[in-house]
Amino acid sequence: MSILGTYKPKRRWNLVESVFFILLVLTAGFVLLRSPLFEVRRIEVRGNQYLPEDEIVAVSGINTGTNIFKLNLHDAVVNLQLLPMVKKARLVRNLPATVTIDIEERAPLGLLPAEDGFIEVDEEGVYLQKGNAATRGLPIITGVKGEGISLGQPVEADRLKETLAVLAGLPEEVRAQLSEIHCTEQGQFRVYTLAGVQCRLGGGDNIQDKGKVLSQVLKELHDQEEKIKYIDLSYAGKPVFKYKR
User: Fold this and answer.
1) Residue 17: which H helix or E strand, with range?
2) Percent of the chain with pLDDT over 90
3) 116 and 101 belong to one structural domain
4) How many other CB atoms sit within 10 Å of the CB of residue 135?
5) 155: which of 3, 118, 149, 177 lies 20 to 30 Å off by Cα?
6) Are 149 and 155 in contact (CB under 8 A)?
7) What is the pTM of this model?
8) Is residue 120 part of a domain?
């Protein structure tokens, strides 16, 4: 008995089978690109809080009625991320006819004085849009001078990064009550409430702990704010109060 197995040559496709396979692929491609089943009928926008949905859809360049496989999602992402308020964008095809746009927005944190008014900046110092001093929850940032101000780009300013870090470290309920945050040349921080109370925070260290204490103090002294000249949280321990005479 031979120890060698019987050799069976591999079956090769003949010309007819090859042509049939190519036609099958072309037909499938034609159906995918031409069938009304795959025309975009719904564009879903998620994650937006500041930008209106219709603006996001318009900037993306995605239109209903377009074949979902013909969409250039890369170009749409690039277009969206040119918007100053957009930090990240992601688009997904949901077959057969839905496109989902996921947006991660930049959140305004404060107002920085500029030549012709105020500008909104986020925690990274990016210039988002023109601002209004009457906007509640966006304290005016003083003690720093912005240079090289360009829409959608980080503002160059001494001590701005540190000031924004302090502001971002405060509880949201505290930021909502502030009208101003000031940074001295020595790197000391002071915030002012809408009621005019000055709160001295000292340096930018332990800002979250100081913020928690300040939040509690403002709640307890809500009805006495007009009597207080300043609250000093510069040092560890209990806050120091200075009352108006």
Assistant:
1) helix 15-34
2) 71
3) no
4) 13
5) 177
6) yes
7) 0.82
8) yes
